[in-house]
Amino acid sequence: MSAAYSQCSADFSMQNFPCREKSVMLDAGRSFEPADSTLHSEVAMLRAARTGRAVRTVHAARSVVSVRSVRLARRLVLSLAALTLGVAATAGSAHAAAPAPVQGADFSACPALSELPEGADPEDWRCEAMTAVGHLTLGRIDQSLDKGMAITFAEGSVNGEFRQVFGAMTAAPVRVRGTWLEITPRYAGYFDFQSNDQRRGELNLKFGISGPAVPSGCSIGTDTDPVRLVLKETAASTVVSQDPLVVAFGVADNRFTAPRTSGCGRLGPVLDAVLRMPSPAGANSLELDARVGLRGYGEAGAAASSPSGLISGISR
């Protein structure tokens, strides 16, 4: 069965060819085109145009992906580089007065009796729960620690030898002014709060870094390469409460160094440049206004030390 019809080729019109009447004969599912050299020429041109368009589409898609990748990388670098201006612009107003330390004492994170050294007599051991606020200068970071941090630990003696057991440390993330970064102080595996004439205590910290595109585990300092603090007295101890015994004091360190960032992947070199890491001694400081609550292990709620026994230091 044969049929004839005329149509204006949409394909030709889309390719900006003249839209002309073409006659196509259909016979049992087969199509025949008239022996028209002009028509054959235009069909060939259409096929070539379609092939060229497909090739250009593939190349264009690849180019878009490549351009997008480059643009994303540039945006990330430019955003991080802008932190330099943001930090520098806000450094002048960084030393705002810190709020008063947290009141009272929370002993919920004290080491359990089972965690004390073998042979420890509960009557000779106490838990100390410290809360503190202050100010941190670390490379280009110049930030108040106004959300506070808390540290708990136990101390006592075994066979006449002074011993200590770490409990826990918690701190809220703090936004770095002028940036989308946050830092969180964290315990880095070592402390010694037995005071002497040279210092009130020692503490290793690391500072977790978080923010958009920053990988988990990114930090300034690690357990193996920490920020080592040697805290010295800036304000003598005073008794705030007798039951439980709570003592307030001030400590600081302005001589510690800070290593380059760790665990930050490809952002490491950029963050180091923006935050000015590593940072030498003299460019960093930590000032803390602290309160320490004390409770003995021998009797629940009973203080294990008299006020006069703690006035000379963080711990005896």
Write up this protein.
- The chain is of the alpha+beta class and about 325 residues long.
- About 20% of the residues lie in helices and about 40% in strands.
- It has four helices and 14 strands.
- Strands 4, 5, 6, 7, 8, 9, 10, 11, 12, 13 and 14 form an eleven-stranded antiparallel sheet that branches.
- It is elongated.
- The N terminus and C terminus are likely disordered.
Computed over alpha carbons, the radius of gyration is 36 Å
Helix content: 10-25%
Q: How big a fraction of the residues is strand?
A: 35-45%
Order of helices and strands: EHEEHEEEEEEEEEEHEH
Average pLDDT: 75
Number of strands: 14
- Ends apart, CA distance between termini: 110 Å
Main β sheet profile:
11 strands, antiparallel
Identify the overall geometry.
elongated
Report the structural category.
alpha+beta
Q: Spans with pLDDT under 50 lasting ≥5 residues?
A: 1-43, 61-73, 75-79, 81-102, 301-316
Tally of helical segments: 4
